[in-house]
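Record pair follows.
FIRST:
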Amino acid sequence: METIYDSHGEALDILGQDFLAFDLAGRAYGVDYAAVEEIRRFEAGMITGIQGAPAFVRGAGYIAGRHVPVLDLASRLGQPPVDARSQARIIFLTLHGQLLGLLVDQVAGVTIQQADDISPPPAADPVMPAAVIQGVGTHHNQPLVLVSLEQLIPSDEAARLCESASQAKFA
């Protein structure tokens, strides 16, 4: 988000914040686009299993010369795993200084959200824990639940997952 100042030196937030909108378990979510490094179509052969990894880790992918853990975000949240269909995508992003991949049902695009247009977080969401929800915006006239990945995936967990991915063997 870029800050622009008026003639009195007051900050004007006219540009808003960019969020990447994606679908997961039948709902629309958004994460801070500034963290996104790359988005790739999910293909089963692009990742390899990680021995001893939690069930929500689909495996490790190889991006930018590094082995990167790919988390099935639906499984991580106690939902049925993401189906490896044509719309499934891996969002590679930097979180707590670590590169991670998040497998989602579909990526819907980038949306700009103005602070004044974001509603307070709901008391409950059928998929996301309330503690990670920043608020609710809109995308294509539909609710977009804005999520803090930093709250969803703590730094120690991200570091552990990245360490285990670095040990993955690729054919």
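SECOND:
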Amino acid sequence: MAQRDRQPDAGGRAGSDEPARSRAGRYQDMGDDWAVRVSAGVAKGDRAALGELYEAWFDKAYSTARRATGGRGESLCMDVVQEAFVRVIRSMRAVRSEAQLAAWMKRVVTSAAYDMLRKEMRLARREREGARGEMEGGEAETVSGEQVEWLREELARLGVEEREILELRHRFGMTLREVGERLGLGAGAVDRRVTRVVEAMRERGGEVFDE
């Protein structure tokens, strides 16, 4: 597949000309002025500042989650990153330096990872305790012909890129980073697009799948 041209975003960044990214696609340290401005913006509820922080810190947060969870799978690490940013929204305070912001972000992600691991362990324990009585006589959940047809129609409505992202992610099982490399997007951008499309489809399909 030919590499797609990166379109500039609202800040005028495009492709390899983005000054904040290294050649490997990861964000470099942004500096104290950036950290002061963005942290103050997030603390005030500025969505643009939150988006900037998410874009700058996605890879770092994901790597921190991987280390904190002992190299667990992508699904758990993505849940950790999402939970960490929910906590950022709730408790961000303005900082005085990039180092202070980095230290705080790492603590937030690590704390979210440990909480997620504890939650996973509790769920696994409950499942083991209740498994004995549920192994027999259960009916497998089926998908009706109406639901299959609805899914086909919904996929046909998607744009070419949205459909391709879903196919690479869910049909071929690629990671967010692999999908991004295939399409010339950052892993964070892929995550946002997948989430947006899936949530929109879930909302439209409420009546079909809640029968």
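COMMENT: The CA atoms of residues 16 and 24 lie 10 Å apart.
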